[in-house]
Amino acid sequence: MKVNVCQAYIDQCLIPCLSPGETVIMDNASFHKSKGVKEAIEDAGCHLLFLPPYSPDLNPIEHVWSPLKNRVRMKLDQDEINLETALSQVMKSMSETIR
């Protein structure tokens, strides 16, 4: 992901959903540490915290990525479909709480 894509997501998707006083927790990807990301979150009255380096166990999304990638790989191998179709089918089969 590039800084401009991350910034657009923060500005258009995340900030409108935040309430002042909330805390946003991010991993240490370089695009998360841009000045614009920090300013946007702080301007919304929120706090920005970063996970400790090399701590995927503290990042809940990491517990979803591995099973998701495995299911998509299996679907691609079995059905000879494109990535978008495989991902869509796998996401529909996953729990509503994960989606």
UniProtKB/TrEMBL annotation:
GO terms for molecular function: nucleic acid binding. Residues 5-74 form the Tc1-like transposase DDE domain. InterPro entries: RNaseH-like_sf (IPR012337), RNaseH_sf (IPR036397), Tc1-like_DDE_dom (IPR038717). Pfam families: DDE_3. PANTHER family: TRANSPOSASE. This is Tc1-like transposase DDE domain-containing protein. It comes from Piscirickettsia salmonis.
